[in-house]
Structures are given as C-alpha cells and as structure tokens.
C-alpha cells in the first residue's frame, strides 16, 4: 500500500518518476488513455480551509475516473472528537483513497495506518508535499533541471512549506537558502532528519549563518537572517504566508518580526537576471510579497497553481499504479 505522507519518506526515484509523469498528465489532459480510478470513490477530509488543494484534487480525481466526496472535518464526527483511528477504519471500508488536510502530521500517518487505503497529505503543520512537488515541476518546466540551482525561501522558514523544501533539496541536490529571522528558522533536527551533514554555524555581522550539505546528492542548505545575502544570485525566489493556518492568534507578533522579509523589486534585482518568483498562495500583498512583484510574476505563480492539478494526478496514478 503506497501513501504520499511526506517528502521525507519519498525516495528520489519516486520523486523523479512523479515529476516526469506530471508532464504527461499535463500534455494529455482531456484525452487520457486510461481512467485508473474508474469505479472508485475517494474522500477529501479537510480540517483547514483550502481553495487550490481542494479544487485540484476534486477535478483531478474525477478526471482519473473517481467519484469524490468532500468531508469538512467540522461536519463529520471527527470534529466532535471521534478518534482518527476509528474514522480511518470506517472510511477504509467504504472508500478507495483519501486526501487529508489537518494539523498534526501524526494524524495523517495514523489515518493511513488504520484506513489501509492510499492516503495523501494535503497539508499538515509539518509538511506540504504536493505543493513542493508542484513547485519543482513548475521550476523545471521553465528553467530545466533544478539540480545545482539556488532556491531562496523568504519569510516564515519554520512552517510546513519550507520544511518540504528542505527534504526536496536533500534529495534532488540543489541549494536551498532560507532567509528568516531567528525564531522563524527551521530546527536543526529537521536538517539532520533530511540527511544534511557537515552542519556548521558561523557568525556574521548580520547574525549566525548555518550551512550544511549532502555530498551524495550535492544538496546544500543555508539558513540566515540576511535576506539580501540569501537572495544574491538566486534562480528562484519563493515565499509563503507569514501567518499559517492555525497560527492566527500569533498574527500581530508574526507580522512584527517578519516585516521586511518580503519579495519585492529591490530583492528581485539581487537574484539572477530572469530569476523566477513563486508563491504557493494565498498571497498577502504588502506582507510577504508586494503587489507590483506579484503581478509582474503572476504568470509563473498561476502556472504553479494550475500545476497542482497535473502533479496531483501524477501522484494519484503513482499511488494506485
Ligand atoms: N497552496 C495551497 O495549498 O492553497 P490552498 O490552501 O488554497 O489549498
Ligand atoms: N504555510 C501555509 C501554506 C498554505 C498553503 C499554511 O499552512 O497556512
């Protein structure tokens, strides 16, 4: 039984096979030779809001032949305290696959274990694997292999999206720089889990810079509060919201500390000429990105949003193949 619960547990070969199948899904949309989910029903269980993930999974599952039911966690007994493992055992006897968006990563893993049906992590507090696979597809579609390139993540470096980027950098061998203030940087234990070695920290006038590498893949990670240094020569500038779902109570404090960690025209000028700008969306103009930069790069950003559909269809085909 295959699941897609994290990029941590997805092998490089599987990642590459999903990325290459995504291109086929995109090219063959509307005339797929087979509908591998014909006769199946899949459940989407969402405990957090969603536009892109929900719509792309609903459309993608239908295009692959499945019927789909959307279950808001608040509307099923899960929201009233029924244990995950009981919900999972019920759904596992009735539906053929599940897409689960929730808070704790452990809950998605427990669901997969008990439901015993292909299960996809549609975002947890710890990872957003479908998003980062899509982002890498989108980068490669426009700029060729990501291996050896420089990706700079700007903003809340301690949330789900940069964590999935860390695992991707480790496996696919690119340089990931995370520009974030102290308190919003990924934990060193995450880098170790991803397999980064030779972790070392050095002091600079702008604060401590952490670097680590993986010799086997060429993956490199740099964590710094120095936004300008992190953006210099980057092939991709990438950002995400400052206030992730579930962190609303911390909004004012987060905005205060993260102010300045913004993708704007002066930051883009420091990157490679022709560097891509991407955002997983939703975007908050004037916070993590300014309006002019968002609109100047909107074609890439909405290609990225559309590619959620194609990537997730490739993920599903891989799961059931
Ligand atoms: N990027 C993303 O996952 O968007 P949604 O929250 O709208 O699904
Ligand atoms: N880090 C964001 C991603 C939204 C797609 C969140 O968890 O809300």
Structure description:
This protein has two domains: 12-127 and 308-320, Rossmann fold; 131-304, 3-Layer(aba) Sandwich (Rossmann fold), CATH 3.40.50. The chain is an alpha/beta fold and 321 residues long. It has twelve helices and eleven strands. The structure holds phosphoric acid mono(formamide)ester (CP) and norvaline. Residues 123, 128, 159-161, 240-241, 244-245, 280 line the site of norvaline.
Which secondary-structure class do the elements indicate? Answer: alpha/beta
Number of strands: 11
Helical fraction equals 25-40%
Largest sheet: 7 strands, mixed
Kindly report the CATH topology of the largest domain.
Rossmann fold
* List of distinct ligands in this structure: phosphoric acid mono(formamide)ester, norvaline
| Count of alpha and pi helical runs | 12
Could you list the spans in which at least 5 consecutive residues all have pLDDT below 50?
none
Give the SSE order as H and E letters: HEHEHEHEHEHEHEEEHEHHEHH
């Amino acid at each position: 039984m295959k699941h897609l619960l994290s990029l941590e547990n997805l092998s490089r070969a599987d990642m590459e096979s999903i990325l290459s199948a995504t291109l086929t899904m995109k090219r063959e949309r509307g005339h797929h030779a087979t509908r591998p989910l014909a006769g199946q029903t899949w459940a989407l269980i969402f405990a957090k809001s969603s536009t892109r993930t929900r719509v792309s999974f609903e459309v993608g599952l239908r295009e692959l032949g499945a019927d789909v039911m959307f279950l808001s966690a608040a509307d099923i007994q899960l929201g009233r305290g029924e244990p995950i493992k009981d919900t999972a055992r019920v759904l596992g006897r009735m539906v053929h696959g599940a897409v689960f968006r929730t808070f704790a990563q452990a809950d998605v893993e427990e669901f997969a274990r008990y439901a015993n049906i292909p299960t996809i992590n549609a975002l947890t507090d710890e990872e957003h694997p479908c998003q980062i696979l899509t982002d890498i597809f989108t980068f490669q579609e426009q700029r060729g292999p990501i291996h050896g390139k420089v990706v700079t993540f700007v903003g809340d470096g301690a949330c789900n999206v940069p964590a999935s980027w860390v695992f991707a950098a480790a496996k696919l061998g690119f340089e990931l720089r995370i520009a974030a203030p102290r308190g919003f940087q990924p934990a060193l234990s995450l880098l170790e889990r991803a397999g980064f070695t030779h972790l070392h920290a050095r002091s600079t006038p702008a604060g401590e810079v952490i670097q680590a590498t993986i010799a086997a893949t060429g993956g490199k990670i740099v964590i710094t509060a120095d936004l300008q240094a992190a953006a210099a020569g980057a092939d991709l500038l990438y950002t995400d919201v400052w206030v992730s779902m579930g962190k609303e109570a911390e909004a004012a404090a987060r905005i205060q500390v993260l102010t300045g960690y913004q993708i704007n025209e002066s930051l883009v000028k420091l990157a490679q000429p022709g560097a891509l700008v991407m955002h997983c969306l939703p975007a908050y103009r004037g916070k993590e990105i300014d309006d002019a930069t968002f609109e100047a790069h909107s074609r890439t950003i909405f290609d990225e949003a559309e590619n959620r559909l194609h990537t997730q269809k490739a993920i599903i085909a891989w799961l059931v193949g």
